[in-house]
Write a structure and sequence with these properties.
Layout: E1 5-8, H1 10-24, E2 28-32, H2 48-52, E3 57-59, H3 64-76, E4 80-84, H4 95-100, H5 105-108, E5 118-123, H6 138-142, E6 148-150, H7 155-167, E7 172-177, E8 186-189, E9 201-204, E10 209-213, H8 218-227, E11 234-238, E12 241-243, H9 247-257, E13 260-267, H10 272-284, E14 293-297, H11 305-311, H12 315-327
Parallel strand pairs: 2-3, 2-4, 5-7, 6-7, 10-11, 10-13, 13-14
Antiparallel strand pairs: 1-8, 6-12, 9-11
Length: about 325
């Protein structure tokens, strides 16, 4: 008998993943600003309060440090909290708790305690939001040992990766690309399932150049690759997990093509594109035919509405970057 499935958007897959794990494990609790009665600002937790009650779907004060610190305490004593930070740009008051405590708890206690916490946050631009609502600061968390950093780009991966994150014994930063929360639908199994953390997905096979990306940038990258069909045979690799990085898939793809580009909406300097380029240099230098092209946001604060579309990499700019790499 075929497994039951439902055609879901990405944000619905978040809700489905939370529901499945809360139903399976009473230690899973959801907490954050407006996640309860209102169902979250993007309705990612809609209906959970009515089903599981106020003790497991907890509306918190507007205090990110308190939200994260409370969740760390819960996790240390055996619960599996899933705190939501309403937008990634609001996370900075809680940053100290994340890097000073959540990431270090296992090491500090010599393994006596772990921190099975999943910190969810919508991230990225493109929705015409005010200041602090469009950040892509994932590199800050990748730089911190002790944290896993996961960014899905499809509804199927969202539920499976969120399930894996909640079941992980260590803290996971789970960033959700809000630009594509409702951009498309995909069949998602009703039953719980896991997508392994730390494994990239090759979204499009190619032989001329490897393009590495994640989150909302996966869609314009795939569009650019399709637009270049007949001119450049583009392989698109969706990393899905930024820490731990799937170096094996990156290097295997690069050895096949000899050229690479990285697409991300975060600023260029200090972004993951630099880490990927360095990894390629260290592991596959003799296969390299051209410099690694970085197609990214700019080294400026994220702009407001009028300039937002110029800031984000879009298919035409991605195509130009791929052509630059091919023309070297």
């Amino acid at each position: 008998m075929a497994a039951e499935s439902e055609n879901l958007t990405l944000v619905q897959a978040v809700r489905d993943g939370l529901h499945s794990e809360m139903e399976r494990n009473d230690d899973v609790v959801v907490m954050g600003e407006d996640v309860g009665k209102n169902g979250g600002v993007f309705r990612a937790t809609e209906g959970l309060y009515d089903e599981f009650g106020e003790n497991r779907v907890i509306d918190t004060p507007l205090a990110e440090s308190g939200i994260v610190g409370t969740a760390i305490g819960m996790a240390a004593y055996g619960m599996r909290p899933v705190p939501e930070i309403q937008f990634l740009g609001f996370i900075y008051p809680g940053f100290d708790q994340i890097v000073s405590h959540a990431a270090r708890l296992r090491t500090r206690s010599r393994g006596r305690y772990t921190c099975p916490m999943v910190l969810r946050a919508p991230y990225g631009g493109g929705i015409r939001a005010p200041e602090h609502h469009s950040e892509s600061s994932e590199a800050m968390f990748v730089h911190q040992p002790g944290l896993k950093v996961v960014i899905p780009s499809t509804p199927y991966d969202t539920k499976g990766l969120l399930t894996s994150a909640i079941r992980s014994p260590d803290p996971v930063i789970f960033l959700e690309p809000k630009l594509i929360y409702r951009a498309f639908r995909e069949e998602v199994p009703d039953e719980p399932y896991e997508v392994p953390i730390g494994e990239a997905a090759v979204r499009r096979e190619g032989s001329d150049i490897s393009v590495f990306t994640w989150g909302a940038m996966s869609r314009p990258t795939l569009e650019a690759a399709e637009n270049l069909e007949g001119e450049v045979d583009v392989e698109v690799v969706d990393l899905r997990t930024l820490s731990p990085l799937d170096e094996e898939t990156i290097i295997e793809s690069f050895k096949k093509t000899g050229r690479a580009a990285v697409v991300h909406e975060a600023p260029k300097t200090g972004g993951l594109g630099a880490e990927i380029a360095a990894t390629i240099q260290e592991e596959a230098l003799l296969y390299q035919e051209a410099p690694v092209e970085r197609i990214t946001g700019f080294d400026t604060p994220f702009p407001l509405y009028a300039l937002e579309d110029y800031y984000l990499p879009e298919p035409a700019r991605i195509e130009d970057g791929i052509r630059d790499a091919m023309g070297f």
